[in-house]
Structures are given as C-alpha cells and as structure tokens.
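Lecture 7 notes. Example A: sequence first, then its structure tokens.
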Amino acid sequence: MNKAADVAPKKAPKNEVLSDSADTKATDSAAQVLRHFRSVFNAVKTHFQQVEKRAGIGGAQVWALSAIRAQPGIGMNDLANALDIHQTTASNLVRALLKLELVKTEKKGPDKRAVQLYILPAGRAVLKKTPGPFSGVLPQALSEMDPKTLLRLERDLSQLLVLLKADERAAKTPLAQL
C-alpha cells in the first residue's frame, strides 16, 4: 500500500475549484469595496469635522450659506433644490442660520408669503474662514468624475440600495447631518 496515497488530500472536481476560487475572489472584492466605503466615509467625516472646527457651524449649514451667497434672493424651494435636500430640511438649516444672524430674509414681490434669502456680513466672514469645498468633498469629487463612470456607479449603488432595503427618504438628508 502506498502511504502517500493514503495521506494525500482528494482532489476536488474542477467545477468545485472554480467555485471556491470565485467565492474567494468575491469575498476579497467585497472586503475591498467595504474598505473603499470606509475610506469615503472617513474622508467625508474628516472634512466636516474640519469645517465645523474652523467655521463653528455644521457642514450642511455652510453649504446652505454658500448657496445663499451665490444666489442672493434665493427662495426656500430653490435652496432645497440647490442642496438636493427636502424643503423642510432647508427650512431647518435656514432657521439655524437666521438664529446665528448669518442670513436675513425679505418678503418681496407679489407673493408676500415667499421669502428671499440674503447672506449677512457675519455669514461672509464664516465662509472666508471655512475650508472648501462648501458642498463637501464627496459632491465635489462626484462632480469631477467622468459621466460614464458616474452612470455605472449610480446603477451599481442602486443595486446595493435594493439589497440593503434602504429607506429612500434618507437620500435627501445632508451627509453632514448623518
């Protein structure tokens, strides 16, 4: 009797080897993608911490303040659209900016219910000492990506969101408030 034959492991059929190899590659890829997400979240978190430390207000407030500066007289709905957030979230941001006396509201035009927003000198001073980009590092990086890459990323992330059974309402929450 051949002792080496008794001790040698049995060879798996070829299709099992391929399956194990594919599973290992998928596991490695999943781990790598998870690391990428961690790096993205860390970059976003670090940026917003720097913003808050330097500006004294949160990143979402800085972005709103910069949008108001860029479009003097902007209305609440247009501000919400500019930041891609829900209108009530925009209202809450503006309420905080008003309380800090960084912006002011005026009611002009035929509809006296609609307010127009204007930055005050104190708001300009906050933006001067705030590290950019005001919209945040992730929106800035996404805006610099190739359109084809963005489309592929959007499709792939949509699949991930389905698997996560993610709450679609969270999509309108500013990253700085997560």
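Example B, a different protein, same format:
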Amino acid sequence: MLYRMTTTSPIFGLRREIDRLFEDTFTRDGNGWTPAVDVQETESDLRVELELPGIRPEDVEITAENGVLTIRGEKRSERKEGEQARYHIVERSYGSFMRTFQLPQGVDEEQIAAEFENGILCLRIPKAALPQARRIQINAGKSQSAVSSGNRSGKTNSAKREHSEELAGVSR
C-alpha cells in the first residue's frame, strides 16, 4: 500500500518547528547557520568547497593565519511581510556563519586561491615542496688515515687525503 505524505498536516508543521528550534538552539553562535563543505586532497593541493547559495562574494571573508583557515560571512534575509503577503513557511537559513579548518603542515598559505561560481566557493590550497632528505658523506679522520696506510712515505697519505677532499667537495 502506498502512503501519501502531505506537508500541510498540522503534525508536519509541528515537527518542522521543533527541528527549527533545535537548529536555532544548537548552532555555533545561536543565530547563524553552517554551510555544507567538501574537502578533497590531490597530489598537488587541497580543495575546499562550500555551498553558499544566495551570498555575494563580497559578503565572504577568507583568512589564513598560523595554520588556521577561517571562512566567515553573512547571508542576509530578503523577506518582507506586509498587509498583502504573509509567510506561512520559512525554511531557508539566514544569518552569519563561520567555518574554521586546521591546515596540515606542508601547505603554502601564501598561495591560497579562491573562486566563487554558482553559489559554490572553491578554495585551492597548494602543497608546498617538502624538503628532500640528502645523503651526507662521512669522511675518515686524519688519525685513521695514518694508522691504516701502513706506509711510512707521505705519498700514500697525501693521495688518500686528496681522495677524501674530492669526496667532501673541497678543492685546492
């Protein structure tokens, strides 16, 4: 049997009002809303996308400081009630919002780029080139060269010294 769900039922309106009450009570600052976000990582960057329908780019502020990315803004209500028109249902959210993200090490905060299109704010956070490990050559000390040579003439020791200096990148 197929049941028809109606949105005009009084119980449906009561549930909607209870949901709104909980949302208003447990949001971050009590009068704001939280936009949905997607975070994606590629080999070269991190991408953060926020849904900001009905918001102009100039109403959004993005800051990155000490490894924390902050996105804040405000969605202003455009509702006008008068004698001729009243709202029966209001489900859209309005108010200020703020989202913060801890950035991982190895990203370049100075190169963050933002684009805003069709109500979606896209942030591209490039990964910084991480320093590569380098191999360090260990040179034999002078006392070891003299002991291991076994030759009393200075000719072999000077040849070994030249070889050690070549490995260390020292030129005469």
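Note on Example B: Residues 20 and 135 are 61 Å apart (CA to CA). The helical segments are 10-26, 142-149, 154-168.
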